[in-house]
Each structure stands twice: as structure tokens, then as C-alpha cells.
Amino acid sequence: MRPRFEELAWHETPMGAISLRRRVDPSLNVEVYEVKLDDEYLMSSLFTVAEIELARLGLAELAGRDLDVVVGGLGLGYTARTVLEDPRVNSLTVVEALGEVIEWHRQDLLPFAGALTSDPRSRMVHGDFFAMVRDATGFDPDVPDRRFHAILVDIDHTPRQFLHPSHADFYTPDGLRRLTGHLHPGGVFALWSNDPPDEEFTALLADVFDTSKAHAVSFHNALQRRESINTVYVARVGGST
Questions:
Q1: pLDDT tens for residues 151-168?
Q2: pLDDT at 40
Q3: CB count, 10 Å around CB of 2?
Q4: Can you tell me the distance from the alpha carbon of 45 to that of 121, in angstroms, rounded to the nearest whole number?
Q5: How crowded is the C-beta side of 34, counted as CA atoms within 13 Å?
Q6: Max intra-chain CA distance, the chain
Q7: How far are the Cα atoms of 45, 51, 67, 208 from residue 119, in angstroms, in the given order?
Q8: Is the pLDDT of residue 108 over 80?
Q9: pLDDT tens readout for residues 166-175
Q10: DSSP letter (8 states) at residue 240
Q11: In a 10 Å sphere around its CB, with 0-12 CB exposed, 13-18 middle and 19+ buried, how is residue 141 labelled?
């Protein structure tokens, strides 16, 4: 019988100590996988509705086939795996700043990692997503200046609350305009946020992109016994894919 609690991995990183934990929640009688950075919870398998909707809402804006997609931030892999469930996807590039998180998936420390690591369309790139946005060569080390149909991002907590101060310039008009340079005409940018919709950020998206919308995603928070609200922002550049 497996123990009720296990620390599956622990690593010291430039951003702090990151750990992957598995536990059995006694009140819900379910197995839970969690990622912590120092004492802060980054992700839990209990709350994945918005991470899944990030992929679904982002890809729903695209009508074409043979889609090339970037996911910024691997985490527990829910967004990336949902992307691969769409049969229109030709390729998926997952950019993750922490090589340790990539290794969790490659070592099958998560029971659902195989669907991502075994899919021939999927590629994991160890790198700084925000630095790649600033760099015109982009997200594919083998194909400089490659453009994508969708870029889906789940890294920071919100457009105002960052995991690292170096991320701040991304959430500005100049930062978002640099991102559009990595998209095909008609391409989509989608962003997860832990907070309800932010009117100021929604207005910023409207200034930079051709169309944009903030989707409030509600889900039942079993631990707090209430409804919680995250946001998925979806914006599209002009033109057609």
C-alpha cells in the first residue's frame, strides 16, 4: 500500500526550492499531486478546470488544421495534454524554465505524464519563455523565427503577480506586441490567471490585439467549500490562419 503522503521530488532552483508531492486527501478520498515553490502552492491536481479551459478556449478561436502550438509553462501538464487532445494539432512545443519539472514528466513521476511524453507531436524545451518572447529567434531552437498558430501561457499567478520580477515587461504594450511577432496572421494568444477578470489588462489586450475577451472560469473549490473564479484571456491578431 502506498503511503498517504510522499515527496516525489525536491530541487533547489534559481527561483527557490521546488517540490512535487503526492498525498491522499482524507476528506475527498482522492489522490492529489501538488507543486510547491518554497512554501507557496503553484498547482494542484484538485484544481485543473481553468488550465484545461486555457487550451480549449484558445484553440476554439482557430478554424484551421495542422496547428502549431506553444504552451508556456508545463506544471502538471494539464494544458499541454488538452492541446494534444485536439486532432487539428500538428505540433506542440512546451517551454518550461525548470528542467526539473520536465524530468518529472519524463521519469513518469506523474501517473498521467505518458500521454504527453509519448506523443510524437510533443516537444519539451528547457528555457525562459519570457526571454524567448524578447528574442526574435523565438521558441524553436532548430527553426529561428518560426511562427505559431497559438501561444498559451500559464506561468505567473496573474498579470500583476509574477513568479519573478523579470516577467513584468511581458504584461505591457511593448511586451505583448513582441509576442504577436511570434504568431501567424490570425494567431491566438491565451493566458491563465488565478484572479477574476482584470479590466485594466483586458483593455490592454484590446489595444494590442485585433480581438480579445476575458473568460471567467468558475469551479467548485472542495477545500474551501465555495465557488472559485479564474480567468482565461483570449486575444487574436489580425489576418487569417
A1: 999 999 999 999 899 999
A2: 82
A3: 8
A4: 24
A5: 18
A6: 56
A7: 21, 20, 15, 34
A8: yes
A9: 999 999 999 9
A10: -
A11: middle
What's the rounded Cα separation, in Å, for the pair 94 and 91? 10
Answer whether 0.85 is exceeded by the pTM. Answer: yes
Here the cell at position 168 is 513584468
Instruction: Give dist(CA 189, CA 187) in Å, integer.
Output: 7
Other beta carbons within 10 Å of 206: 13
Amino acid at 5: F
On whether the CB atoms of residues 71 and 79 are closer than 8 A, the answer is yes
Query: Cα(125)–Cα(188) distance, rounded to whole angstroms?
Result: 20
Among left, alpha and beta (phi > 0; psi -120 to 50; other), residue 153 is beta
For residue 120, what are the contacts with CB-CB under 8 A and spacing of at least 6?
Answer: none
Q: How many CB atoms lie within 10 A of CB 156?
A: 22
Right CATH for 47-236 from 3.40.366.10, 3.30.565.10, 3.40.50.150, 3.40.50.2300: 3.40.50.150
